Amino acid sequence: MQWGTPSPRGSAAAPLPASGIILAGGESRRMGRDKAMLPTAQGPLLLHVARTLAATCAEVLVVDRPPGRYRHLGLPLVLDRFPGRGPLAGLHAGLEAMTYPYGLVVACDMPGLAPAVARFLVEQALAAERRGSPVDAVVPLRNGRPEPLLAVYARRLAPVAEALLEQGSRPLRALLEAPGVRVIWVDEADLRQVDPDLRSLVNVNTPAEWAAWQRARDSSG
Predict the structure, then answer these.
(1) Looking at the predicted structure, is the pLDDT value of residue 4 above 60?
(2) Which of 19, 72, 199, 209 has the highest Cβ tally under 10 A?
(3) Residues marked as binding for GTP?
(4) Does residue 7 fall inside a structural domain?
(5) Contact call for residues 105 and 91 (beta carbons, < 8 A)
């Protein structure tokens, strides 16, 4: 399949004019093996996440660290310019490379991402733009805390992210707290309207978490 178009099992709606950015540059220390290559029924987890994003976003990019471990998967690959600096560095690479004004960023270890959630978040940014009140980020909240690894970011934040990275390793929340950055915070109750169990926010960092995810998936049918 061509990346950026929906898979046969994806959403019937046309992809939105936005980029999907998968952060895959981590070292998977707690998992003990490469999280992006964990096996799913759709192939490696990274491919599963990419196919889900392709149901919603007109472009899908994978951010990896040099020299690039995932070229063999045939996904559009972007290399991190600040390897070892964490998710903010991956986001920066994606923002610089993406074609569209907004990108939905997702970690490669989020197997429960649903196309409906991806579409809901991207549409928040696009709707604000149409209203003439553009925002720089759309970020879900869970238990009152931001979930910046499943969020929409504007391409215009790339220089802001770069300035923060030039100061050293910084968390993603530093970008959201930067002066002048406009954020839509998505209440947990609103997100539950499209994802009642918040499965899209689940990430798997350890073998125990991966096993728990598989059990939950199997029990839900």
Answers:
(1) no
(2) 19
(3) 23-25, 35, 80, 109
(4) no
(5) yes
Q: Which residues are annotated as a binding site?
A: 23-25, 35, 80, 109
Domain, as residue range, for 71: 16-220
Residue 3 inside a domain? The answer is no
CA pseudo-torsion sign 127, 132, 138, 142: negative
Distance, CA of 148 to CA of 151 (rounded, Å): 5
Report the CATH number at residue 133.
3.90.550.10
In a domain, 6, yes or no: no
Binding-site members for Mg(2+) are 109
Which pLDDT value is given to residue 87?
A: 94
Q: What's the total number of domains in the chain?
A: 1
pLDDT at 27: 78
Residue 87 domain-assigned (yes or no): yes
pLDDT digits (tens, 9 = 90+) for 203-217: 888 889 888 888 887
